[in-house]
């Protein structure tokens, strides 16, 4: 899967903003751990959860077959201008903040060595610690100069506070300083209950909870003034759905009017920050089946200002993504398939990689 | 005449104490209660949470029936108002026998101080929701009194509301022919989303909390088990419901083998078993989008007006919902509530 | 109509009086050495505006940082908290960007935002509601409200 057959002039393909890869086992990552962590892994008989902590049960129709090596991507990226790889393996970790940071670094090194090297159409995501902001900043500093990384990767859930919290400011600032997008991706630390009340008994509910939690992160980032402090920051919500946006913004804008003095650094209506700083990927696309309702829903959603195409390969979320693209006009489709991503990730050019 | 499905009374401690038997009266006097209600974690930064003009000379907002009549029932020609006693949310979370005593005292105080004196008012049966056996006993005690129109639960329960633990409550409600209402509140928890810093965030999360309650009840197959159950979602908003139904149906198509207890499309469950109250009604810049969002739910005949008096984000019955089509508004302001709770539409 | 509200000496800074003037209920406020009169009716949902708190203008340079103006020149409705400039009755939303942008975003069709109000609060977004204001004068040591004239003089 190299570029010799595709010289890369005047590419017209889309930009896939969420394409998954994952090590088949910790053995794949072994070269990227130091001796202490290799020993730790061996002592714990540690293995990667086959379901990534319940996020992707291997047999679930939505999971698909894991992409463990670049061969699995053969032809997948042939028609694309770029593809952004996400490896969510570090999401499934224990509470040991040092191991979390080491695992994230190992994954990042594995991705850049075994995936990005020599494949000019691929871009990577820098996985970072969620529990130790200083370690997260250090990792961003370590890899931030590597132009092949376009974003910092965080799980949308699993922390005791939301990402707008002052605790995460240094991480978001470090990303913004280096023109790195911040990606909040579906799922998160194993052992956290997705709902306010407690654990769910079904994967279905857990799967749908990503959409609810993504909304809480969106609200947090805006309410905490993150985009005032970091006016250059861009945030992508990946694999969390998107059709939930208009009702949330109606509520958020209305409530802000009554209690704005609690957050006086929010200097505009909350909804105005969203379209400037935040994007969502196109799948899962949960949309009405009726044509008229679909048109009305999309009018409120504003897909050309909100969405970036993603295959989310190998995951499968049904027909909604196709239905979405079919419902867009030419200009909207161009924006969603590539235009928005070109403006949302550093270093991408309209003509594609050289 | 207008139907108001969400009015918040307050029972003062003195009125509660006099109705608590031993040993609960002494325990309440000495130790009060343990449950952490939302305002303890997120101070209500707008007027302390209530309209500033709703404070009676002696007492708390919602504790004075005369003021409630003057500012709400008489002011807006409310013919039928449902009291939602939020104290039941925290009382209901205490240990079983204590919770049962507190809820019984609360329900009795509401009856004597509000329902007995004001024929336009109805109330909910507040129950020890974490102790289903005791909850069923309280439902059975009061079900025959037609002034109790529903069973009240908070969205903040210790287990997901569709958990089998709570099944006896739903069965008892359905057997009594009463809906169950979920109102925002109860014990504050943020295990999935992470704790917000501000009241603004906490309040903005209410639609999401309600959506997850509804999702959980449906996925638990509750309505297959208790087909006669109706559920009212109070103060959670409405416009999120159609996007939720699209996502439930799409995901169920792929993942239905994970929820064998659910035997029909989730949206069908939603449309046949849920109701909404209006406040706080969403207010998009373009009112046509609200009309579209409500129409997409397919449930405009299951929406009931609510004021949320005396809270600060109170919706005025005479002004709210002006942008809705006239026939919807008429039904929402009166007929739908009567279809749900009974009584005469006038 | 002209109504004497109180002797100046009895009306201290920070105080307010609510008076009936004909059919109207009007709140008279003293802020420092200035007096303001505003209709006791919030255009949003008809709340009793003059029962609300007076508040200072507030600005923030960033998360966690806040500075308050010296005087409470805004009146917040005791219901939903809509804030009105006591001098002009112009409502304001939260803080905003520079005036040109704030105006375009917020102004509803047919509504003219008071230029005077916008100048006094350059970093606030004007809201869609304007409360009615009245002239207040001090004459012979009395505070007089005059409902024949608006309050911007």
Can you tell me about this structure?
- The complex is a heterotrimer of chains A (354), B (346) and C (153).
- Chain A has 354 residues and is an alpha/beta fold.
- In chain A, 39% of the residues lie in helices and 12% in strands.
- Chain A contains 13 helices and eight strands.
- The radius of gyration of chain A is 20 Å and the shape is globular.
- Chain B is an alpha/beta fold and 346 residues long.
- Helix content of chain B is 42%, strand content 13%.
- Chain B contains 15 helices and eight strands.
- Chain B has an eight-stranded parallel β-sheet.
- In chain B, α7 (132-142) packs parallel to α8 (167-175).
- The termini of chain B are close together.
- In chain C, strands 1-13-12-4-3-2 form a six-stranded antiparallel β-sheet, with no helix packed on it. A five-stranded antiparallel β-sheet of chain C has the order 5-8-9-10-11. Chain C has a two-stranded antiparallel ribbon with strand order 6-7.
- Chain C is globular, with a radius of gyration of 16 Å.
- The two termini of chain C are 17 Å apart.
- Helices cover 9% and strands 44% of the residues of chain C.
- Chains in contact: A-B, A-C, B-C.
Helix and strand layout, with pairings?
The complex is a heterotrimer of chains A (about 350), B (about 350) and C (about 150).
Chain A (H helix, E strand, L loop, with lengths): L14 E6 L5 H4 L5 H9 L38 E5 L10 H20 L5 E6 L5 H11 L5 E9 L11 H9 L3 E8 L14 H21 L2 H4 L5 E4 L6 H15 L10 H8 E4 L9 H11 L1 H4 E2 L11 H8 L2 H15 L10
Helix pairs in contact in A: 4-5
Chain B lengths: L1 E6 L5 H5 L6 H8 L6 H4 L23 H10 L3 E6 L3 H5 L4 H20 L5 E6 L5 H11 L5 E9 L10 H9 L4 E7 L12 H6 L1 H14 L2 H4 L5 E4 L6 H15 L10 H8 E4 L9 H11 L5 E2 L21 H16 L5
Parallel strand pairs in B: 1-2, 2-3, 3-4, 4-5, 5-6, 6-7, 7-8
Helix pairs in contact in B: 7-8
Chain C lengths: L1 E6 L8 E6 L2 E8 L2 E6 L14 E2 L2 E5 L2 E4 L5 E3 L6 E3 L4 E6 L3 H8 L8 H6 L3 E7 L2 E7 L2 E5 L7
């Amino acid at each position: 899967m190299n570029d010799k057959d595709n010289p890369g002039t005047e590419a017209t393909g889309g930009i896939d903003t969420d394409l998954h890869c994952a090590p088949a086992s910790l053995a794949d990552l072994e070269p990227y751990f130091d001796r202490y962590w290799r020993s730790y892994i061996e002592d714990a008989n540690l293995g990667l959860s086959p379901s990534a902590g319940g996020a992707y049960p291997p047999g679930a129709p939505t999971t698909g077959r894991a992409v463990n090596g670049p061969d699995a991507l053969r032809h997948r990226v042939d028609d694309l201008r770029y593809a952004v790889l996400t490896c969510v393996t570090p999401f499934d970790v224990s509470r040991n903040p040092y191991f979390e940071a080491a695992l994230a670094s190992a994954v990042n090194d594995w991705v850049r060595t075994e995936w990005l090297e020599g494949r000019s159409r691929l871009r990577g995501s820098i996985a970072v610690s969620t529990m130790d902001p200083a370690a997260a900043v250090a990792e961003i500093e370590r890899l931030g100069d590597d132009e092949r990384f376009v974003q910092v990767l965080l799980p949308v859930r699993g922390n005791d506070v939301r990402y707008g919290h002052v605790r995460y400011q240094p991480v978001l600032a470090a990303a913004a300083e280096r023109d790195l997008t911040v990606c909040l991706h579906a799922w998160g630390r194993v052992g956290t209950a997705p709902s306010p009340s407690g654990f769910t008994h079904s994967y279905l509910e857990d799967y749908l909870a990503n959409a609810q939690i993504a909304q809480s992160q969106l609200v947090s980032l805006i309410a905490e003034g993150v985009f005032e402090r970091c006016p250059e920051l861009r945030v992508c919500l990946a694999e969390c759905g998107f059709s939930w946006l208009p009702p949330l913004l109606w509520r958020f804008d209305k409530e802000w009017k009554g209690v704005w003095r609690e957050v006086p650094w929010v200097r505009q209506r909350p909804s105005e920050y969203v379209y400037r700083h935040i994007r969502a990927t196109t799948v899962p696309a949960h949309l009405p089946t009726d044509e008229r309702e679909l048109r009305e829903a999309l009018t409120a959603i504003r897909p050309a200002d909100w969405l970036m195409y993603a295959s989310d390969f190998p995951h499968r979320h049904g027909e909604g993504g196709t239905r979405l693209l079919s419902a867009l006009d030419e200009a909207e489709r161009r924006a969603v398939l590539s235009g928005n991503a070109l403006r949302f990730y550093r270093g991408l050019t309209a003509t594609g990689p050289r | 005449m207008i139907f108001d499905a969400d009015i918040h009374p307050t029972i003062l401690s003195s009125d509660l104490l006099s109705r608590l038997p031993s040993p609960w009266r002494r325990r309440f006097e000495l130790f009060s209660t343990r449950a952490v209600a939302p305002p303890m974690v997120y101070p209500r930064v707008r007027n302390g949470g209530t309209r500033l003009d709703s404070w009676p000379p002696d007492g708390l907002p919602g504790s004075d029936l005369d003021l409630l009549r003057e500012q709400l029932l008489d002011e807006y020609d409310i013919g039928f108002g449902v009291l939602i006693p939020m104290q039941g949310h925290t009382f209901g979370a205490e240990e079983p026998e204590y919770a049962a005593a507190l809820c019984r005292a609360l329900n009795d105080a509401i009856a004597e101080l509000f329902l007995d004196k004001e024929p336009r008012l109805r109330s909910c049966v507040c129950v020890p929701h974490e102790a289903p056996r005791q909850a069923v006993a309280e439902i059975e005690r009061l079900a025959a009194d037609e002034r109790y129109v529903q069973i009240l639960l908070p969205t903040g329960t210790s287990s997901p509301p569709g958990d089998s633990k709570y099944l006896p409550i739903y069965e008892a409600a359905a057997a009594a022919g009463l809906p169950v209402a979920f109102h925002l509140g109860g014990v504050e928890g943020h295990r999935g989303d992470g704790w917000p810093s501000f009241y603004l965030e906490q309040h903005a999360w209410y639609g999401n909390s309600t959506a997850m309650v509804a999702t959980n009840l449906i996925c638990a197959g509750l309505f297959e088990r208790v087909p006669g159950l109706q559920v009212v979602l109070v103060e959670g908003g409405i416009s999120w419901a159609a996007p939720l139904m699209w996502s439930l149906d799409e995901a169920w198509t792929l993942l239905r083998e994970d929820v064998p207890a659910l035997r029909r499309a989730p949206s069908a469950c939603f449309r046949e078993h849920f109701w909404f109250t209006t406040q706080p009604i969403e207010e998009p810049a373009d009112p046509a989008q609200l009309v579209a969002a409500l129409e997409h739910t397919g449930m405009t005949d299951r929406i009931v007006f609510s004021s949320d008096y005396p809270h600060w984000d109170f919706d005025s019955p005479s002004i709210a919902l002006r942008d809705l089509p006239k026939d919807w508004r008429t039904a929402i302001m009166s007929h739908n509530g009567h279809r749900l709770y009974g009584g005469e539409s006038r | 109509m002209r109504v004497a509200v109180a002797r100046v000496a009895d009306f201290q800074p920070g105080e307010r009086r609510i008076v009936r003037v004909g059919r109207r209920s009007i709140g008279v406020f003293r802020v420092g050495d200035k007096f303001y009169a505003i209709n006791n009716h919030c255009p949003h949902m008809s709340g009793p505006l003059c029962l609300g708190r007076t508040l200072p203008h507030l600005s923030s340079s960033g998360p966690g940082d806040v500075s308050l103006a010296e005087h409470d020149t805004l009146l917040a409705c005791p219901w939903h908290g809509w804030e009105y400039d006591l001098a002009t009755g112009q409502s304001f939303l939260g803080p905003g960007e520079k005036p040109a942008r704030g105006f375009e975003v917020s102004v509803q069709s047919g509504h003219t935002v008071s230029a005077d109000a916008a100048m006094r609060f350059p970093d606030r977004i004007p809201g869609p509601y304007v409360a009615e204001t009245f002239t207040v004068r001090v004459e012979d040591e009395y505070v007089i409200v005059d409902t024949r004239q608006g309050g911007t003089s």
